[in-house]
Amino acid sequence: MISCRDYQPLLGMHALGRLPETETIALLAHADGCPGCRAELDGLRAVAGALGHADPARVSPPPAPPPWLRESVLTAVGTRHVHRRRRRLAWAGGLVAAAVAVVTLLSGLSGVFNTDRPTVAYGSGGMRVSAELDVRPWGTAVDLSVSGLTTGQRYLVWLENRDGSRIPAGSFTARGMGLTMELSAAVQDDEAVALGLSTVPGGPAVLRAPISR
Fold this sequence. Notes:
Elements: H1 4-15, H2 21-33, H3 35-51, H4 67-109, E1 119-124, E2 127-136, E3 139-147, E4 154-161, E5 166-173, E6 179-185, E7 192-198, E8 205-210
Antiparallel strand pairs: 1-2, 2-3, 3-6, 4-5, 4-7, 7-8
Helix pairs in contact: 1-2, 1-3, 2-3
């Protein structure tokens, strides 16, 4: 809702005859119902009328700003300029440091992350299993995600070697919402041909999924 505070900046412009017609109509309509704004407008009209009779040549001595004003303005402008410059330099320095950190990090990890890692994908009857294998000095890390398994059942995870033997990679207990975990097996990933799950050591495979390379 428009209030007196919104109209007050327009009072002086109207008194000087500088207010556009559309805003003048709205201002006068407001002033008709607002004694405070109407009184202020009448006072400003009187001042505006007296301005035409003012003679600057008769003002003695000529008005001049106080001597401290120039120094105060220059100091304020200079201080703001320095602060802005410092902020720009700090921002630029931070950006360069961040860029260097990212390049260093990527360079250091380029040998760790392998975008062509062997993968496993299996889905049947609501059961979903996916994995990525990553070679490590001690063997193979297995990033495993499972869902749709029997809740509360303990499963053994293993990698199947080329000769058909099973290399244990760990175990987990299934949860209703699925699980994501990192396991490990003491075998090089290029020697493993499949990933499997079973419920008892050496027992039948609940699933067996080949490793894709």
